[in-house]
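Appendix B. One record, verbatim.
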Amino acid sequence: MAEAAAAGRNPWAIIPTLYFASGLPYILINTVSVILYKRMGIDNGRIAFWTSWLYLPWVIKMLWGPLVDMYSTKRNWILWSQVAMAAALAAAAMSLKQSGFFMMSLLFFTIGAFVSATQDIAIDGFYMLALSDKEQAFFAGIRATFYRFAMIFGSGLLVALAGRLETSTGNTPASWAAALALPAILFVLLAAYHKLILPQPSMDGQQGGRHVRSPAVFLEIMASYFRQERIGATLAFILLYRLAEAMLVKLAAPFLLDSRAAGGLGLTTAQVGVVYGTFGVASLVVGGILGGWLIARYGFKRCLWPMVLALHLPDVCFVYMAYAQPPASLACVLVSAEQFGYGIGFAAFTVYLLMRAGESAYKTSHYAISTGIMALGMMVPGFASGYIQQAVGYKAFFLIVCIATLPGFLVIPFIPKEQRRMESA
């Protein structure tokens, strides 16, 4: 029997709030921060460079993952992570009213990023301990849905709220401080709720003794990852598949916000919350669901090339917008089309990572390594994207983004596309 059921806890009372709590910090720190800094007058180069560093905790979280196994319980890690997240967001909100707000808020976002990555480790571990195998399979889609609801809440509703406050008060720092204070309060409530509702699985806290985390074991896990078939092609695929998207994502919101004279679309903060954070993210969710269904129906190998095209071809929507500078209504359609294609293409990417991890005796660790490398592939291109845009303008920048799709196409013929039977441990 599942631990949650044994403790009298319905998984429906646990999983939605846990994965909403998992998704919200990620979207706030990596996406909403870009819009915040743009509205606070920071230039595109510094925005893209410094916010790209915020991906780092998700790149290296595998390094302290064993500590979550070895010390205390997953339940305690979740509770304290949520308290710490509330504190980090509150501190970031208060820092916006200071003269040195940029580096101060970046510091608190960085702390929040490390806390969020740790919370992700604990939540995923708790999920496997508290639910039976059957429940884990059933709730896989539910957890993904509520993670994405958090994305809509963060990049849509909170950004729209900040925009409305900007309009009504005329005070941008206070408006964004209020918008960040809301999720800070929400994390206090989530911590209190989870303290009351989360069960205490009997195996929670025993993994450190059951799975010895010696340096030799850690090194063997890492070595086995790099011994995989055609690992060079796989690494190139992970790093290059989303190269263009990694460049685009850092400049999409600034492009929508910048004035038409500066080459942007001149949308208000509230409009960006609706266009990019609500309709765009909703389209991303629908595309991801459709992509998963298509792979389940037709198989990964048959779907790969169509999904690669679905990911990359809609980038031309931003080229068109840079040249035509359409009104907000058409921009909403074009942004939604690009995000829909991204959702479909990312489904293939996710399935490939799971497929390769499934060939290993160390499934969880190998998947964590792959997602860390994936985050690295998003972080590094972001360092330069803002400075490139400033040097060449939005029109040329989005053309460069389209050219940056080519390495992702070129590496695909060399990757393994068939899942092999897992080797024994």
